[in-house]
Specification:
alpha/beta, Endonuclease, Chain A, seven-stranded mixed β-sheet, 19 helices, 19 strands, globular
């Protein structure tokens, strides 16, 4: 009996139970490893085949090469997981629906913008380059070229704001305002007080702003506040607590339309820093234009297209006006760019200016994030003798983005591109000018988000007397900037240089 008790104590001791438990776990691990070992080749083979198929799909897609690389690297580094993330973003139904709705809306609006063939034929005889560019815009987005217009250029946000106020006060039928950012303050309150009075005069007022741009600046129910004043309001793509690829597409446009007779666009949002009433990054440099003529109809159509994406379809014709302006003043094309088609209109027009420049190309932009095609075009233009100059801010609003932008400086400087940094301030302007004959003023930055992920707008101005004013402003900016040289770059902080180079991997996301 004593022996049986000893055996029982040994069998049920903690040590024995621990050894038994460990033995079971080891046997289980060995079994699982042995089982999967037999099938490991198949599992990795399937992952490898699946990864290869997705990579081949990405390589053969129409997207930008930089975006392709940005997807391929994580897919290869993280087999399975990278593919699932890619498929999650690419196969979302919301994106397909948004693309389908926009396509239908664009097709519906095409009949309201008709190209005057007499203008086009005249351009064909006089300037083949402008004719080709006009054809491209007509075929890809249906925006006509016009030759009768009045344009006023504003070298600061404050000048544009003051002019807008005077014109908004004179509105008789409707006012449409679209902005990436709206923030309460003197600027917006001044506009809002006028809009309230206009509503009482039976003027139709609509405001559309971006859900991300004003996320922390306006209450989520602010559209209801505006509606209580009689103002129609819409948030473009409100931010929601759901992971969705369509949240990546933002409305970055800046448009104000009055009675279908006047349109404003440029780089200015609606907040006090844009008119330098609030100092954030030194002097804030914005630019814009006021346009009159039939070209305003292009702005009306682009505004209603985006408004109608999530609304009952509005009838375009009641907002379109035949201008009574008679004077011919060069040519002008108002155009928009959207991230849901394959044309990259904003980028193509910038490249057209660079690639066809004979004497000079001047550029001002707050951000400099270049893909290979843009970098190659700037390099080629400089090496063939074109005076290429780029103005950047001395005081950036986003330091990491600025480090990334500076990572291109040496490559550009080595081929003769001149780079300037605007002294004591932030250049928020987005403009190109070339050879005293062509210019672009609008909302399109020289970065991936503007060129590929945002809804944007701009005007292409050709042989218009206002180009002299734009060039004069560029000269003033050069005179108020520090020119960056290769010697300057040697003094640039090595840590910041390394950060900038590393960030190139994330460039498509910035």
């Amino acid at each position: 009996m004593k022996i049986l008790k000893i055996i029982k104590n040994i069998i049920f001791s903690r040590l024995t139970l621990a050894i038994f438990s460990l033995t079971i776990q080891i046997c289980l691990i060995v079994f699982v490893m042995s089982y999967f070992n037999k099938h490991l080749a198949w599992i990795f083979g399937l992952f490898g085949l699946f990864n290869t198929l997705v990579v081949l799909i990405i390589i053969n897609s129409k997207s930008n090469p930089s975006y392709k690389i940005a997807w391929i690297i994580p897919i290869l580094l993280f087999p399975g997981v990278g593919v699932l993330v890619y498929l999650f973003f690419k196969l979302q139904i919301s994106i397909r629906l948004m693309r389908k709705r926009l396509k239908l809306e664009t097709e519906n609006s095409r009949k309201y913008l008709k190209q005057d063939n007499e203008i086009l034929n005249k351009i064909k005889k006089e300037d083949r380059g402008l004719y080709n560019l006009s054809n491209y815009l007509i075929k890809t987005s249906n925006y006509p070229v016009y030759d009768i217009n009045n344009i006023e250029y504003f070298s600061s946000g404050l000048l544009q704001f003051r002019d807008m106020i005077s014109k908004i006060k004179s509105a008789k039928k409707y006012i449409f305002i679209e902005s990436f950012i709206i923030e309460k303050g003197y600027m917006f309150n001044t506009i809002l007080n006028i809009l309230k009075e206009k509503v009482k005069e039976d003027v139709e007022v609509r405001i559309m702003y971006d859900g991300f741009g004003s996320l922390l600046l306006l209450d989520h129910d602010y559209p209801e506040v505006l509606k209580s004043y009689g103002i129609k309001c819409k948030i473009f793509s409100p931010i929601k607590p759901i992971i969705s690829a369509h949240q990546n597409y933002r409305d970055h446009r800046k448009i104000c339309i009055i009675d279908g007779k006047i349109a404003y666009t440029g780089s200015m949002n609606i907040a006090d820093e844009y008119i330098n009433l609030k100092k954030r990054f030194g002097y804030w440099k914005d630019t814009g234009v006021r346009i009159e003529g039939d070209v305003v109809n292009s702005f009306v159509v682009m505004f209603l297209e985006l408004w109608n994406l999530t609304n009952n379809i509005d009838e375009y014709s009641k907002y379109l006006v035949k201008s009574n302006i008679k004077n011919k003043n060069g040519n002008i094309i108002a155009y928009s760019d959207n991230p849901l088609d394959e044309y990259e209109i904003g980028k193509r027009i910038y490249l057209d200016i660079i690639n066809n420049a004979l004497n000079y190309v001047y550029i001002v932009t707050p951000y400099l994030i270049l893909d290979d095609e843009m970098l190659s075009s700037l390099t080629y233009a400089s090496l063939r003798g074109v005076d290429v100059r780029i103005i950047m801010p001395e005081i950036p609003d986003k330091k990491l983005v600025n480090y990334l932008g500076k990572s291109y400086y040496e490559e550009l400087l080595e081929v003769g591109v001149k780079i300037y940094e605007f002294k004591g301030g932030f250049t928020h302007s987005k403009m190109f000018i070339s050879d005293d004959v062509k210019a672009v003023v609008g909302s399109i930055n020289l970065d991936y988000r503007s060129l590929y992920l945002h809804f944007e707008d701009a005007v292409y101005i050709y042989k218009n007397k206002i180009i002299n004013n734009i060039k004069k402003d560029f000269i003033d900016m050069f005179n108020n900037s520090n020119e960056i040289t290769l010697d300057n770059m040697k003094k640039f902080n090595i840590i910041k240089k390394i950060i900038g180079r590393i960030l190139r991997f994330l460039a498509p996301l910035m």
